[in-house]
Design goal:
Number of strands: 0
Helix content: over 70%
Radius of gyration: 19 Å
Largest sheet: none
Strand content: under 5%
Number of domains: 1
Order of helices and strands: HHHHHHHHHHHH
Length: 235
């Protein structure tokens, strides 16, 4: 456990010693604020549903920037050999780095709470929908980070890791649209189940479905297991 905390602390220090964390948090806050103001004034309703959808799009774009250096930076900095030679288990390295990126995600999420102030002052929002929406956003972010971390482990080039992560995340988001091209019921349901947008849409509408929560957890765990096994193989 001490090894995991050491890796986690190192990751956070690395993020905040570089412009990455500040760029991500500020870009996300500005983008979310713009979409929130536009959505509220264009629809005239105090709801976060449309803003949550825009937040998901911003997340897809920014996640590759957040995750591309997790392992690729170790490769390019010639520190990967030292890292895997440390007397700590591989899963502690993977989970420690993963939690560092998730912490940045949580900070980005918390920064958007400022948008809720005028909503509660001048409107009557559904608290359950807001809580469910934020839970869905965090789960989506955790799944996206795990995928980005996997690609970062597979390549030594940070740009390549980012370029692989972005289309994969967009693919998971839009795969549900391929349902209309399928006549087979099984494949139609499978494509719908695999779509990030399908489960996320339920959560931002206040539908706390265990199926949606389990799906994002499954994606995260699968990616983390693949990353751990790959690092073990390199070790």
């Amino acid at each position: 456990m001490n090894g995991l905390l050491a890796i986690y602390s190192k990751e956070l220090i690395t993020y905040f010693r570089s412009p990455i964390a500040y760029f991500l948090i500020s870009s996300f806050l500005v983008g979310t604020g713009y979409f929130y103001i536009y959505n509220v004034f264009s629809t005239g309703t105090a709801t976060m549903e449309m803003t949550f959808r825009d937040m998901a799009f911003l997340l897809m774009v920014l996640t590759p920037v957040l995750t591309m250096r997790i392992f690729s930076g170790e490769y390019s900095g010639k520190t990967m050999e030292l890292l895997i030679a440390l007397p700590i288990s591989t899963w502690q390295i993977v989970i420690g780095k993963y939690l560092g990126a998730v912490t940045i995600l949580l900070i980005m999420t918390a920064a958007t709470f400022v948008n809720l102030i005028p909503m509660f002052l001048y409107g009557n929002p559904h608290i359950t929908n807001i809580i469910s929406g934020y839970l869905g956003f965090i789960l989506l972010g955790m799944a996206s980070i795990s995928i980005g971390q996997l690609y970062s482990a597979l390549t030594k080039n940070q740009i390549v890791a980012a370029l692989l992560t972005l289309p994969t995340l967009l693919g998971f988001w839009w795969v549900g649209h391929l349902q209309n091209m399928q006549t087979n019921l099984f494949f139609r349901e499978l494509l719908g189940y695999l779509a990030f947008s399908f489960h996320y849409g339920d959560l931002i509408r206040g539908l706390l479905r265990s199926e949606a929560i389990a799906y994002y957890i499954l994606v995260s765990m699968t990616s983390l297991i693949l990353t751990t096994n790959y690092i073990k193989w390199r070790r």
